[in-house]
Design a protein that fits this description.
Hepatocyte Growth Factor, 2 domains, six-stranded antiparallel β-sheet, 13 strands, 17% helix, disordered N terminus
């Protein structure tokens, strides 16, 4: 608990809501109180289990070694003074290893399904959602510019929360493909098309 107090003191922290997606399904976490005490009031913790960062660019990752759990891993990221600073983490639940990732590494990042890992990041983003629309060829694609196969639009949105530059995500209800994007003005779409399968979430 003394270590936690030091971390919270360094970050000058207040309260946050914990949002957890375990195995791409929502459920409560027993570690809610720890992270609630260690985040600014305008931010949420977002966790998505079953995904890992397979590769990133140079200076895109920070090794934090072994930690007791995913909460401690995320707290090390928040308290880190290394630059560029840590923005989110991948925690190996089998081995207890913790790796942090910077915003600089997101563009060339490769994400993959892996049941041994969980991703955690803090987000103050607020998204609006448009159902039955699609958006193509706009904005800069993140995470290797590839669509990711997900089970639900909520999981796609969770990844957009976790990745620092992401402010638009589109999800195909039929194929399960998730596209993560960075757009200069996400609230002003050009070429928005009606679609029976599309779900678009964007920062409002």
């Amino acid at each position: 608990m003394a270590t936690l107090a030091v971390v919270c003191g360094v970050l000058d922290i207040f309260v946050a809501q914990l949002v957890v997606l375990h195995g791409e399904h929502r459920k409560a976490s027993q570690q809610t109180n720890v992270l609630n005490d260690c985040l600014p009031s305008h931010r949420n913790v977002v966790e998505l289990q079953g995904w890992n960062v397979a590769a990133t660019t140079e200076n895109g990752s920070i090794c934090f070694g072994r930690t007791l759990d995913s909460t401690t891993c995320h707290l090390r990221c928040l308290a880190s003074v290394q630059r560029p600073r840590c923005r989110f983490v991948a925690y190996n639940m089998d081995r207890g290893t913790c790796d942090g990732f910077t915003a600089a590494g997101v563009t060339g990042m490769t994400l993959e399904r892996n049941a041994s890992f969980t991703l955690l990041g803090s987000s103050g983003k607020k998204f609006d959602r448009k159902d039955r629309f699609r958006l193509q060829d706009q904005g800069h694609l993140l995470a290797s510019g590839q669509g990711l196969h997900m089970y639900a639009a909520e999981s796609c949105l969770a990844l957009c929360h976790i990745l620092p530059q992401c402010n638009v995500c589109t999800f195909n209800n039929y194929s399960g493909l998730c596209w993560l994007k960075s757009m200069p003005r996400p609230e002003q779409f050009v070429g928005l098309e009606a679609s029976s399968w599309g779900v678009i979430s964007f920062v409002s």
